[in-house]
Design a protein that fits this description.
The protein contains 18 helices and seven strands. The longest helix has 19 residues.
């Protein structure tokens, strides 16, 4: 386990960058070998996993389908009210700084509410270390709700739809989405990237976005948005004034309830896994929704499947999404957590993700390695003093 108190300088990818640095990372082939080695389990585990997979796919359907159908019925009237095209005014574009697509995109959305078009106040709170590769949606929501003066608020939901985005934006609510980014012309490979949804045009089937990397009013086809949005469980962040909270909840319909939202997102992912059992993103999204619903055993199996089907997951996946750590922690697979953290540290970039050290610390504490756990948690806080889960975990470990 890498536990040096200092970081080695390597190339960073916190979303696309407008700079290029010397590439000191492992090759894709080397990373593929490393991930495959982590994915191989015993024959007994494989058989057990297949049984669980069948149970997940075949037995969960009835309850989830009814929930999804109910949600569709209840929200249809809201979504049908969206006009055929719309453009949100008074939203300024910001070119992102180094590794700064999250804070830059969030600030773009906040300019609609009169916030200055300066990405760095958000960056200083969300990622005090400029090399930090990831800002999670929950962190951006926390920033808006606790650090932005006034009555601007934010919420996060999952399993979004294009119609849902159109309904929110056309009613005057800026929406951020997190999606995969992997252009064929770019040799950097897959990574995560935030987009601000500014508008849409049904006639041309395009979403109009402010893209902090590629520019203002950037148009993406509906197919493109959904194809890459699903890489992040179709997560979306809604910005709104507190005085309009009831309007937002009405537009969300059943998804206003967080648990129902996860159930609906789970059903969408399950249907995609049925349609294509070799789709790693469908299984990963199932795991994400399972763990959010407190179904840790099912989540662990879904994540195992995601890591083994269809060529596995992008090697940067655990820079941005940490559900496998949560699931394995909940079911006691601490050594698997250590292996995943080690893979992150060895890929030439994961040492710039505080969650890598945080989850290693949780695993070490659960294994009785208190001193190493404290070192890992301190490393997470050294990197980002505002990362509240590490602070809470450190206090708990120190009081053990």
């Amino acid at each position: 386990m890498y536990e040096s108190p200092h970081f080695v300088k390597t190339e960073s990818y916190g979303g696309p960058s407008r700079k290029r640095r010397a590439n000191t990372e492992l090759t894709r082939h080397q990373k593929g070998i490393m991930l495959v080695s982590l994915q191989r389990r015993s024959e007994e585990d494989t058989v057990t996993g297949k049984v669980w997979v069948l149970l997940i796919v075949l037995l969960l359907g009835a309850g989830m389908v009814s929930a999804q159908e109910s949600a569709a019925v209840q929200t249809s009237s809201n979504l049908s009210a969206a006009p055929a095209s719309f453009m949100l005014d008074n939203v300024q574009h910001i070119w992102q700084g180094w590794n700064n697509c999250g804070p830059a995109t969030l600030t773009m959305g906040l300019t609609y509410f009169g916030v200055e078009a300066n990405q760095y106040p958000a960056a200083q709170w969300l990622k005090p270390n400029s090399e930090d590769k990831n800002v999670s949606p929950w962190q951006m929501v926390e920033y808006v709700n606790t650090q932005v003066p006034g009555t601007t608020r934010a919420l996060v939901r999952y399993g979004g739809t294009l119609d849902g985005l159109k309904a929110l934006v056309s009613n005057g609510f800026p929406v951020l989405i997190e999606a995969g980014y992997d252009p064929e012309s770019d040799d950097q490979g897959w990574m995560g990237h935030y987009l601000l949804i500014r508008g849409y045009d049904d006639e041309r089937s395009v979403m109009i976005t402010h893209d902090s990397f590629l520019g203002p009013n950037r148009e993406y086809s509906y197919d493109y948005i959904d194809r890459f949005w699903r890489h992040f469980n179709r997560v979306y962040i809604v910005l709104y004034d507190l005085s309009r909270q009831d309007e937002v909840m009405a537009l969300l319909g059943p998804d206003a309830d967080e648990q129902q939202n996860y159930r609906n997102a789970l059903e969408a992912a399950r249907q995609e896994a049925i349609a294509n059992p070799e789709d790693p993103f469908a299984w990963f999204n199932m795991g994400t929704n399972f763990i959010a619903l407190g179904m840790a055993n099912e989540a662990a199996v879904a994540y195992d499947q995601a890591r083994n089907v269809g060529g596995g997951l992008p090697w940067r996946m655990l820079w941005y999404q940490f559900g496998p750590f949560e699931a394995y922690y909940a079911v006691g697979r601490y050594q698997d957590m250590i292996q995943l953290a080690q893979a992150n540290l060895n890929d030439g970039g994961g040492q710039y993700v505080e969650e890598t050290f945080y989850y290693a610390g949780l695993a070490r504490a659960a294994m009785g390695e208190t001193e190493r756990a404290i070192e890992n948690l301190n490393q997470a806080l050294w990197f980002n003093p505002n990362f509240s889960p590490a602070r809470a975990a450190l206090a708990e470990v120190q009081n053990m």
